[in-house]
Amino acid sequence: MAKAYNFTPNLIKIQLILIIVLFLCFTVSKSAPQNSLVTQLPGFSGTFPSKHYSGYVTIDESHRKKLYYYFVESERNPSQDPVVLWLNGGPGCSSLDGFVYEHGPFNFEAAKTKEGLPKLHLNSYSWSKVSNIIYLDSPSGVGYSYSHNTTDYDTGDIKTASDTHTFLLKWFEVYKEFATNPFFIAGESYAGIYVPTLASEIVKGLDTGVKPVINLKGYLVGNGVTDDKFDGNALIPFAHGMGLISDELYQEIVAQCAGNYYDVTSDGCDLLLSKVNQNDEVATAWLNDKAVRKALHADDENVAGPWELCTGRIAYNHDAGSMIKYHKNLTARGYRALIYSGDHDMCVPYTGSEAWTKSVGYKVVDEWRPWMCNDQVAGFTQGYEKNLTFLTIKGSGHTVPEYKPREALYFYSRFLSGQSV
Prior knowledge:
The structure is a single chain. The radius of gyration is 24 Å and the shape is globular. It has helices at residues 8-29, 96-102, 157-174, 191-207, 228-241, 247-257, 267-276, 281-287, 290-295, 301-304, 324-332, 350-359, 400-403, 405-416; strands at 52-60, 65-72, 83-87, 106-109, 119-122, 132-136, 154-156, 183-188, 216-222, 315-317, 336-342, 364-373, 376-384, 388-393. Helix 3 crosses helix 4 and helix 5 crosses helix 12 (350-359). The longest helix is centred in the first third of the chain and has 22 residues, at 8-29. By secondary structure, it is of the alpha/beta class. The protein folds into two domains: 36-226 and 280-416, Alpha/Beta hydrolase fold, catalytic domain (Rossmann fold, 3-Layer(aba) Sandwich), CATH 3.40.50.1820; 231-276, no CATH class.
């Protein structure tokens, strides 16, 4: 009788080895770096509502040029929810401004003593309720970001867009599990330049086959700098209409400046404009505390420098010109755009943003109308073809999520999901 062989134990061993190998491969490719995990923050005693990560991405090895990020996973469904990159403006202002004062996972209560640290409470209107969000200090020299070669602090629009694109490519190589999530860029103020220039840089990369592929879907710009003439010439009529300057001063300015409040050629006009132009301790104290910097994986102050809300150590060149051509190109390619403005902002008045969105020349598909939040009129909106939307927020100043957090989360959620307000 032929000898019988029992292969079962060997097969079981092989299967177990395969399972272990597959598990290890899955773990390596699908796990955010554990050494970047933020486990506690001074001033907060509760449980984080989602995972937080922070640290540096080196975008130039020869210069040891590093960009700092703080990444908050979505509190809802991080594996499916969009990934949003948030950028504050300036140029030269840290995006941790948005984290501390606007739509981050915490609200900050000022310390009761000068030496104390603020207390942190969970923010009911955090944008991490519906999205993963990366707060990025950009360009290098801003916030916690720095370079060992200070020539990198002489930069501009084009270089900043290129560097931020490099950051994203490297970031998605590390956080591979988020590479297929829908990706959006959002920002406010001078990020009205950062956002469309970065989006255009990403699109160029997609066109030329750059890896990893970034799943760009659209972008949001809040009270954004866009075009010098539209933005600059909106200021005086807006200030007059809001009752911020007298009718007499307004009439004098109109007569002296002939409707040109941006490219001033008259000394008399310049003198009158100067009459029109006649916070931050919480963030500065907290983000410069040694224990906080350690918890946030930020390099020591003697290496990276002190954290400042808006720095003066960079020399910045606005070399990209008007953003209108960028918006036209991006929306023509099918990327969704929401241009939103607080209607009480004198820094970048909503009237300028309303005017330039009209100037693009797209057909109106959603006539000017009020939009509602919590059964109240929250502002007005107008929708154009090619998924370009303009929206105002009633009673809000320059930083919309700070002034109107509930309304901001509402329109943000609707936009990310592809719905109108």
